[in-house]
């Protein structure tokens, strides 16, 4: 699998997270409960997998390699701006989650920011999917560049797992949770 395909695979994982987030905010809006531990897991996956790992791969490795090829610089600039937008939404999720965990009436803002993050995921990954597919079809990166990036991605994956544990298993636990079905 190439580095470009690796990023596309990340998007599949991220859209699985989006489905869990959608179920979560829907229940919160309905006044139903989601276990606090599962809310924390969602926030952790957003922070560790989506932002630090996936966006980290793009911002520190992939985008610098692609932005000056085939007139991609404007698209890359927009993606980086969107990443910052996603981080801001995620910070608001975290703030309202902490308030909710402390017993404050933060159900509605937590649900609202989870919904906003869910919409962000769908919009952002669909645009990046088109970009990555274009890079792949135009062969904008050489085979050696793809391999070098893939090695860097593997290093980053090991670092993420060392620091955060198995986030894939964490998402699978969320998907199997009774409330998420």
Summarize the structure.
With 181 residues, the chain is an all-alpha fold.
Can you characterise this structure?
There is one protein chain. This protein has 181 residues and is an all-alpha fold. It has a single domain (3-180), classed as Four Helix Bundle (Hemerythrin (Met), subunit A) (Up-down Bundle). Helices cover 83% and strands 0% of the residues. It has 6 helices and no strands. It has helices at 3-29, 36-66, 73-101, 107-138, 143-164, 167-176. Helix 1 (3-29) runs parallel beside helix 6. The two termini are 31 Å apart. The model has no long low-confidence stretch (mean pLDDT 95).
Which terms would index this structure?
181 residues, mainly alpha, 6 helices, 0% strand, elongated
